[in-house]
Amino acid sequence: MNTSAIIPIKAFANVKQRLSALLNEMERAALAEAMLKDVLTAVGLCQHVDEVFLVSRDRAVHDIALEFDVQVIHEPEQADLIGSVTYAASVLEDRGYDRMLFLPGDVPLVTPDELDAICDGVSDPPMIRIVPASDLFGTNGLLVSPPAAIRFSFGPDSFRKHLEVAEQDSVRSEVIQLPGLGLDLDTPEDLIQLCDRLAIGETASHTLVFMTDNAMSDRLSAWQKDSK
Q1: Which domains can be identified in the chain, with CATH numbers?
Q2: What is the mean pLDDT of the segment spanning 171-175?
Q3: Could you tell me the maximum CA-CA distance found in the chain, to the nearest angstrom?
């Protein structure tokens, strides 16, 4: 079965607003770019992914696609995440892909082994395999076969909602929890967890360079003191 991975990316400008207490706009954009590059590096080494697509209208994202030799699906104007993924799924079905792997761009600790685990040994379609965020609320990975097998339901509590939608649509669902893919970066607390995990040797090359160059460990220590 051929498998495509999609990574929807909005414009890097004004991303990660919940990190504004620690990072200015340019720094947040640089962090988002570094995380995306780490995700693309991991996907590029996944044995089960045949093609990678970034779903975006941002020119900077298109430049990264060229750098990593991946394709771009131009998302519809004014599309939210659900609209972008739904559109990408229809494009991929039209192109004859059997499976679609949705990934966010802000999971820098994801590994090729984790991605292979998601894609390996999947049951006959229609089915989904879902990776929840570490808090069991968000959806940090979603393998869908065929690509448009379910109605996507990203947003608050999307992990539970995707399982409910799959059940309503008589689509088989499987859950797999993965520590690297489970951590996405939205809050200062997430950054603290990332720093701790990088300190014990988990790899995230581009993101690690960003964290080091911007003295994030010191910034986070100061932030923790000020927030008490």
Answers
A1: 3-227 (3.90.550.10)
A2: 96
A3: 54
